[in-house]
Amino acid sequence: MTPAAALASLLFPIVSSSLVGAGPDLGTFVSERCLDCHDDSTKKGGFSMEHLDATITPANAKDWLKVLQQIERQNMPPADKDQPPREERHTVVQTLEDKLVAHARGQVTAVGSAAHRPPPCAA
Prior knowledge:
This protein is mainly alpha-helical. The protein has five helices and no strands. The protein has helices spanning 3-11, 13-20, 26-33, 61-72, 86-111.
C-alpha cells in the first residue's frame, strides 16, 4: 500500500472501511486510485469521494454512476497515473454495476412499478 493510500484509509474511514465489504477490491481501489485526487481538499474536476458512502442511496446514486462511467470508460484513473490491471478494473466495474442495479430495483420496489392512470372520462 502506498503512503498516500495508507493515509487516505486513516483519514477517510467512512469511504475506505465501508467499501471494503462492498465487493472484491472496491475499497482498496477507491483508497489507492481515487482519493488522492478526489478528496475534499483536492477535489479535482469538482468531485470529492471523501464522504461518498458505500451504501448507494437516492442522494448519492448519481455520483456512484459517474464513478462507474469514468472507470468503465477508462477515463479514471487518468492516463498519466498507474493503471489498474484489466481484471481489477473489471471487478470494480462489475461490483459498482451490481450495487447500482440492486439500488434501482429497490427503488422500483419501494415506489411500486404500476403505472397510475387517471380514471376514464365520463361521456
